[in-house]
Amino acid sequence: MYYKTNPVFPDNFMWGASSAAWQVEGAVSEGGRTPAIIDLNSKKKKPFTDNTIAADHYHHYKEDVALMAECGFSSYRFSISWSRIIPNEDGKVNAEGILFYNNLINELVANNINPIVTLYHYDMPVWVDEKLGGWLNRDIIDAFDHYTRVCFSEFGDRVQYWHSLNEQNMQICYGEWLGVDKGCTDWEKDKWKINHIMNLCHAKAVIACHELVKGGKIGPVPGYVPIYPESCKPEDQIAAMNAEELTEKVWNDLYAHREYNGFIKKFWKDHNIDPDIRPGDMELIKQAKIDFFSLNCYRSNVAKDCKPNENFTELQLNKDGVKGGFIYPKYPGIYQLTSNPYVETNDWDWEIDPIAMRYMLRYVWDHYQLPMMITENGFGAHDSVAEDGHIHDEERINFLRDQIYQVGMAIMDGCEVIAYNPWSFTDLLSTGNGMAKRYGLVYINTTDEEVLDLKRIKKDSFDWYSKLIKSNGQNF
Ligand code: BGP
User: Fold this and answer.
1) Which pTM was predicted?
2) Catalytic residue among 107, 154, 167, 351
3) Residues 107-112: contacts with CB within 8 Å, 24+ apart?
């Protein structure tokens, strides 16, 4: 559909940005926080980089919130570090952890910025892994329930919007990369057990939020990579549907319909997989009615037919930011992914595809009819400070302009979208590439090799975004 005007955003639309505790906070051994599994990964697993200091938001939160207010934010999506709140197996609440998030939330509220809180963003406490057995053991369900209830009780008077787990689908699809496969002997089978345990954690969080937070709303945060068939060859369309099911739809159907869909039940049967669903589990999941979908979307994918006699090829992310390093996977008899000749890519071979944003919003709205917010979307780049002392991130401005325009087009198409929170406000650690891959509207003066003065410098994109959001999405 073409329209005669530029898109119009609703009056109460929330504009902000996004972050995650382990990627932005630093201060990993301060304020009573105990280590998280991701801290260990970040030290050992290249190209993950050390998160001991990151953007040092823990010590700069006031300055960071002041910059958000200057930019004109009405929302900020961040995550809480589980091991800051519950540092040990005894379940005792860490007052210093509560204080830090209270301070941050109060600062946001004082500046009319809605806090949007994610309860779990990849940072499982080491004690959960060592004492309880991590994601493989159902003991995590009660431990997570205890932690989320503490968060709802402590912060629910000021936080209306909550998220359960960040990118559960990506954690299962790329378990080895994110360390979720720890302790597994047969990942292809075990991952569905872990996924079921994650679903129970999600369900309990949804139920507890509605019980403890007056007017509280909660949703999941799938990582979304819209998938196009490579051609109109019917086999390619089926391959695209397979890819959609096995990377996104299985999860989204569960969240929205609160039962496993027919596709995955048949898949488990055919592959002799037992996800260990116990009596009472599905009744619990059935009670967990989500209020909205949050969506992380950076790029798109293309799928094509993959004959059963093809060789299996594992997806390999581009880990050094030199174009051409990304390896598309092949799943014989199911689907394979391939490049898209119609779109540009960034230095990490991620497709730059604004229309995928509109496509995703239309797709999710058509399937689930729930309000949606964008919780991640952004342009990772090798930014640097120019001789004039500024950061001229023209490519990021172009990326954000085109993406936001398409969010607007989806709204024009009739989708209910309530917020746009791109990744990220300040530079922070990329999951795979540390500070070498920067996303922020605000530059942080530090590198992976050497900790510098951590000065905050507004990039050109900060000024552009500020003008756009102060005009409620009119001043492109
Ligand atoms: C999402 C994660 C974020 C963030 C982002 C960008 O999947 O939720 O934590 O890291 O991806 O990815 P990367 O940092 O690898 O470029």
Assistant:
1) 0.96
2) 167
3) 107/61, 107/62, 107/65, 108/65, 108/68, 108/76, 109/158, 111/65, 111/66, 111/68, 111/69, 111/73, 112/69, 112/74
